[in-house]
Amino acid sequence: MRLLIIEDERKTAALLRDTLTQHDCEVICVHDGSSGLKEALNPGWDALLVDIMLPKLDGLSLVRELRAKGHTTPVIMLSARGEVEQRIEGLDAGADDYLPKPFAISELLARLRSIVRRSTRQRSVVFSVADLSFDQTSREVRRGGRKLELSSRESLLLECLLRAEGRVVSRRDILASVWEYDFDPGTNLVDVYVRRLRDKVDRDHTPPLIQTLRGLGYALRTEP
Question: How confident is residue 30, by pLDDT bands cut at 50, 70 and 90?
Fold first, then answer.
């Protein structure tokens, strides 16, 4: 996980940074709210750990401003004040979780994993190759800006090829991914659907993206 710690107590921040780094996290520390907000607005953070009592800009105001600007990065608020009212205030400001000090690192890690998992599930994943795009959440497919109408199986087949972008996917693997077959039924089912998908994705477009590798399977890529 790539984490931003916004904590004015430098010893606490350093201890958190060193401990979380030992658990395969990449950690950056900032020691005031104004600098913290500036860093938090940059893309690429998996989660933020924000102390409430910060100089220049308090943690609650920081999170409110972050949310007002449309940023959805998960936030855990840290505070020595653990009363119910303070927790509610932190959550109402836009935090995803609230952890009173002192806390166990194991609990912090568990909460981090939980909010990052939730955030990942909610985030729309868009696959793209050349001028082809596929929104995993809405299932919308576009090529050259034009929306393509795919059947549910064609959509699953395209997703299967996009996930393996550039690599060859065997017929057996396609059957397992798209039809959930753990055996080859001995039909040309895959070939039929690949032809249908190719007709929609590659017709009237350059370069052709869906490639056949005889005896091996299929690949979606821009180069032969």
Answer: very high
